[in-house]
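Researcher: Quick sanity check before group meeting.
Model: Go ahead. Protein one:
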Amino acid sequence: EFKNLRTSAQILGLSPSALSKSLKFFQAQLGKQLLTQKGRNIEITEEGHDFFKRLQVFLDAEESLLLPIL
């Protein structure tokens, strides 16, 4: 969304190095390259777009489960 690791880290309340290490660990666990460095910016890869689409379905389902039952 922000295409900048420093800005993203600040919003999340993390140091840029902590966010970078977390992203590298997460990508290694998945075995997929979700983001790529482009100069000072980061860009989402095609694998990242695919992962986000699948993740969004899960997050939407989780949100509906947390809604109060009428």
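Researcher: Fine. The other one?
Model: Protein two, sequence then structure:
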Amino acid sequence: VFILAGILSFFILEKFLYWHHHHAEHEHEAAHGFTYLNMIGDAIHNFLDGAVIAVSFMNSTALGITATIAIIAHEIPQEIADFSILIYGGFSRAKALVYNFLTALTAFIGALAAYFFSSAIGNSSIFLTSLAAGGFIYIAGTDLIPEIHKEKDLKKSLVQLVLLVLGILLIWIVGRIFRH
């Protein structure tokens, strides 16, 4: 239900962004709406990462270090991908770098929020994680996968397919190794 809420929320956000973009006085900005949606999803994601790190350290130093290493390991490729999405969506390299950095700062906000409101957080992280996941699913389904379909070169299309399958396989393997 929360994933569907994320998908619906991002649909509404994208509709508003397109409406706002088409009714703005300054039509010179060429960035696609999905770039802003990606930043919103990334900000939520980073906020949650910060919260996970803080809560992990509150439980034990060893767990905190482990969580931090795991989050850093997934953040490096994820932030490179987010930067690439912003560039592809029409941002300049400098603007993409600044906005990507600003969304990364939400991890510190998440850590502080988790530290100061740890007793009140409870299961709200499930809602926020699902909302972010729904947002990323929406972006992939409505913007990124359709862009991949525009590729007509057979070799590049096969590379895209192989990378997609490898990504799914990696997620499956990690899920099997780190079962809850």
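Researcher: One line on it for the slide.
Model: Residues 20-28 have pLDDT under 50 and may be disordered.
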